Amino acid sequence: MSTTTSRRRRLLGIAATGATALLLLTGCLSNTPAAEQNTGGNETTTDNDAPGEKIVIGFSAPAADHGWMGAITTAAEAEAANYEDVELRVAEGTNDVNLQISQVEGFINDGVDAIVLLPFDGAALTEVAIKAMNAGIPVINVDREFTSPFAARTTVLGDNYGMGVSAGTYICEQLKDTPDAVVAEIAGIDSLPLTQDRSTGFADALDDCGLKVSNRVAADFTVQGGEQAASSLLQAAPKIDAIWNHDDDQGVGVLAAIENANRSEFFLVGGAGSANMMREIQEGTGVVRATVVYPATQAADGVKLARLIANDRSLGDLESHSVPRLIQLYAPVVTKDNVAEYLDTAFES
């Protein structure tokens, strides 16, 4: 059933305050590796899981042409299945902006109670998201931000800069006794802000321990692109101490290039947190020593938050009476010491 007009107006009133609350989930306030922190698990002791008013949530995301993106929708569906009071209507994944806009317009016409939206292009989907908000439907924006604060009730983001910081900090810890270490970087698509943020965080963290990126190449988040970029890197650098690869999907190709080049004098840190890389870490026989998580559970978080917002509830363990407007997820480092904590929620590349 749909929410009442009065409740929608109340929800919009909350969004219109423009107040930004930044919450780092998992109880972490820094980029210290998770193994060094007392996470205490991810269970709350509130009654938020108790059934509430039946709600309908519309969900739209890009096509699952990447392991991480595929896991986004799977995790959202699994989260919705946990609640008997949630009906999740999943639109077919698409990289066609116009089609995704029409999907959102369909949700508006159907009068859903909330929309969870990972836009293919945040700027292009902003206008229709505002339209939904103006219709009294709270929009949960996931991963790729809209260009207007009026387009979403709550935004869930990963931490690209934090990924770079976490990777750089880990490499600093491993190479603290090697001041002239050769550090290499295999980035994603250089023109994207997320790649630029990851590289900036990585450089900042290395600078803090006196290291720098000696060799850098860029790929394109694909297996083929990762293999080509890594092959070029290995040919250009006869000796390397550590590599950070931004993306575990392209990391499949990176590992193929390393094997083809018969190189093993360095260790590699991955990015995003795929199950493939975590199994490499767990086995401990190859060059992969760690990966930095970019949670594929962001849309699942969006579903959970949409349910809370539609039922006028807040997050557990917060004194505030409403769900925060902005939530940025933590980017922990996964190593052999803590891989078992993350493997069951990792995605397959």
From TrEMBL:
The lineage, from the top, is: Bacteria, Bacillati, Actinomycetota, Actinomycetes, Micrococcales
What Gene Ontology terms describe where this protein resides (cellular component)? cell envelope
**Signal sequence, start to end:** 1-34
Q: Name the domain of life.
A: Bacteria
Q: Which organism is it from?
A: Pseudoclavibacter chungangensis
Family from the record: Belongs to the bacterial solute-binding protein 2 family.
Query: What PANTHER family is this protein classified in?
Result: D-ALLOSE-BINDING PERIPLASMIC PROTEIN-RELATED
The record's section on SUPFAM superfamilies has: Periplasmic binding protein-like I
What InterPro entries has UniProt attached to this entry? Peripla_BP_I, SBP_2_dom, TAT_signal
Domain (Periplasmic binding protein) ranges: 57-311
Molecular function (GO) terms for this protein are: carbohydrate binding
Which keywords annotate this record? Signal
As for subcellular location, the record says: Cell envelope
Q: Does the keyword Signal apply?
A: yes
Name the UniProt record assigns to this protein: Substrate-binding domain-containing protein
